[in-house]
Design goal:
Strand content: 25-35%
Bound molecules: NADPH dihydro-nicotinamide-adenine-dinucleotide phosphate
Helix content: 25-40%
Number of strands: 19
Number of helices: 8
Shape: elongated
Oligomer: single chain
Amino acid sequence: MDEKQIEKVNCLIIGSGPAGYTAAIYAARADLKPILYTGLFIGGQLTKTGEVENYPGYPDSTMGPEMMANFHRQAAKMGADLRIGYANAVDFSKRPFRVSIDDKKELLADTVIIATGATPKWLGLEAEQTYAGKGVSACATCDGFFFKGQDVAIVGGGDTAAEEALHLAKLCKKVYMLVRKTGFRASKTMVHKIENTENIEVIFNVEVKNIVGDGRKVNGVCLRNNQTNTDLTLSVSGFFVAIGHHPNTELFKSWLDMDKAGYIQTKNCSTATNIPGIFCCGDAQDANYRQAITAAGSGCMAAIDCERFLLAMEHSPIAIADVS
Ligand code: NDP
């Protein structure tokens, strides 16, 4: 990494979703003088959703972008230094850790909290963007409620799709589960549950060709059956995509322990990674729950873990400092 503009940081937070901002709020209140770099998509996944009804403390619901703007304001108010910038290279071989921002600036960080999140995979249809928050969603747990009593479709044949289809089946009149191959990827237990849920209809061998609507909301999905070479249109008001997520952790892969899918592994129900002083929270380490509230909770944990680490370092710097 070239020596450029260099700055020393006590607690560096990378990422600006619920996890990153919550870590910033707690770290600022603990006087850790955190600096948070937002990444490219300020506010993360929630800025791409519509109404949020399941975040405690908002009995009248709120909109995702508004909620993240409030997270930002609260972190700033607590004294966190919030900056727009993208971490593009890291060197975690020894402390202070080196993090390059936009290739222009180098930070020397005593501790790093990674809150870079995950990105849902999309089919790549233009209509997914057109109808995002207007009937198209990548999270049935978040948005299924808005389709109560209606007909919806979900694409994907893995455990996430199965779990979300079961969730939707409790709320919706009918759930079409669209699987591109002849069989599921989901576990046998989940498949068994799907097969025993009356209002779920599984359609195999189908490719989603388009999502249609009136410009304001979804009213159908166009399918191609690749076995029979026939086309089919389903009338649905909700369309859910559940074909997997990419954790945004590529930058850290030569340093941190990750699972096969790239989720960063944390230790013993904490946010500690395999490198002392580097913590991870939110969807970057959570393939399982992926909710705003769980991300925020783990952001709080990361700030507390970080505070304890810095305190321990003050008292016993040698024992903890040697990470090489
Ligand atoms: P997976 O990668 O397991 O499954 C993705 C599914 O989406 C597959 O059926 C795949 O089809 C399909 N798919 C991928 N791309 C497309 C596309 N372009 N068009 C149509 N379909 C597509 O992801 P999941 O998110 O389901 O699961 C991730 C991991 O998390 C897994 O290990 C899973 O077991 C685990 N998990 C466990 C849960 C639990 O235990 N309760 C709950 C949720 C997840 P194909 O099979 O043809 O490739």
